[in-house]
């Protein structure tokens, strides 16, 4: 992957053409500003001061280097979704219960919602957007399609990132082992048999 | 929802972290793995002025054996405890328990010290500390002090730690010859908080169990020892002795009613766990509940 450095200002950048997501973001921002009571304005000022006080973050995401000024309370999940527009990592529960935000942080799977960005200056992150090689799907992605490892697809990014961690750790040797070591990733459509079959198949492909 | 605004600082040493806590008064809190703290902040169940990140303090990580004592740095992560040959050899109870602590992605971040300082009554690790007779090493502005596990866990999310103190290490007596560990919990799904769990260690001697420590978690406001039942099980095993020990649990445990289970169901499950524990420690095949 080529190394690129982008400098992104603290305010979310708007990219033409405007997408549904950006309209939603802009609208939500305007509503939030209009509704700001005194306390929240103080909080916003404190957060601004925090960013000004040198909470700068350098991270490499999917091979691309980024340097950002951040609010200390931003999780890696917030930075990925709101600052880098990498929305394949989902905010399901924001409390570590669903696994939809699973990413690889320095090669280890973690819940991005439970990880403050400020803690990880210099980190290397892989998200679902960085798994395929161009148009060529990773064997685990292809196996999810082949085995119907999803229905609505909301949890799939997290399932695949967690599955990659599960395979790399050597915990994908049997269906029972896969089920135990994928316990943190919930699929409300109930695609579990397909998910387990896909991870088992990819484990063989990756290890052969 | 997002956390309320806070400031963030990294401590390079335990001394520096203590200074930050002192300066912060009650408004500063330590950030270890963050796997319980960040949900509480994200849900605005908690707010604070300053988060002191201690993840960069290398001196707080690692596992070593000194004499008959296992020393574990407070910032050692669950995933490292789970794969440690020292833990497997000298504290098998802890190795068995860690497999039930949340899920793999959370075990990659969460730390033993953070878990113990959080003192969740449904957590596996405080119960293990009580069953193993752990000593907790604490550092504060006036130096270090050592607290027995039995004096550390005071209640629901309450410990003996002062706001300006840091739990820096955990010391466990290594498994003695002849000792065996039992760990099991009932949860709706692997990795969920236990409805009822039991951490136990003792020395089987023929058909008796000596020096047995039984500690339940998920029952009541903190992990609870059951000395009455343990004393009864020092007698020769028989169905009547087991039944007597199971009955004695009612005196030691204060099970709660909540959305997961009624108090009566918790007591029933605790009794079932006791039968499993006795059978496993005595190497008996039959599973009588």
List keywords for this structure.
heterodimer; A: 208 residues; alpha/beta; Ubiquitin-like (UB roll); 2 domains; 7 helices; 39% helix; B: 289 residues; alpha+beta; Uridine Diphospho-n-acetylenolpyruvylglucosamine Reductase, domain 2; Uridine Diphospho-n-acetylenolpyruvylglucosamine Reductase, domain 3; Enolase-like, domain 1; 3 domains; four-stranded antiparallel β-sheet
What does this structure look like?
The complex is a heterodimer of chains A (208) and B (289). With 208 residues, chain A is α/β, with parallel strands linked by helices. Helix content of chain A is 39%, strand content 13%. Chain A contains 7 helices and 6 strands; from the N terminus they run E-H-H-E-E-H-E-E-E-H-H-H-H. Chain A has a 6-stranded mixed beta sheet with strand order 1-3-2-6-4-5, with helices on one face. The longest helix of chain A has 16 residues, at 192-207. A 5-stranded antiparallel beta sheet of chain B has the order 4-5-10-6-7, with helices on both faces. The longest helix of chain B has 19 residues, at 263-281. Chain B folds into 3 domains: 7-53, Uridine Diphospho-n-acetylenolpyruvylglucosamine Reductase, domain 2 (2-Layer Sandwich), CATH 3.30.43; 62-173, Uridine Diphospho-n-acetylenolpyruvylglucosamine Reductase, domain 3 (2-Layer Sandwich), CATH 3.30.465.10; 180-281, Enolase-like, domain 1, CATH 3.30.390.50. The mean pLDDT of chain B is 95. Chain B has 289 residues and is of the alpha+beta class. Chain B has 12 helices and 14 strands. The chains are: A alpha/beta (208), B alpha+beta (289). The interface between A and B is medium-sized, with 37 and 30 residues.
Count of discrete alpha- or pi-helical segments spanning 4 or more residues of chain B: 12
Biggest interchain interface, per-side counts:
A-B, 37 and 30 residues
Tell me the strand percentage band of chain B: 25-35%
* Structure class of chain A: alpha/beta
For the report, how would you describe the main beta sheet of chain B? Answer: 5 strands, antiparallel
Report the CATH architecture of the largest domain in chain B: 2-Layer Sandwich
- CATH superfamily heading of the largest domain in chain A: Beta-grasp domain
Which CATH architecture of the largest domain in chain A?
Roll
Provide the CATH top-level class of the largest domain in chain B. Answer: Alpha Beta
Helix content of chain B: 25-40%
- Round the mean pLDDT of chain A to the nearest integer and report it: 83
Order of helices and strands of chain B: EHEHEEEHHHHHHEEHEEEEEEEHHH
CATH topology of the largest domain in chain A: Ubiquitin-like (UB roll)
Largest sheet of chain A: 6 strands, mixed
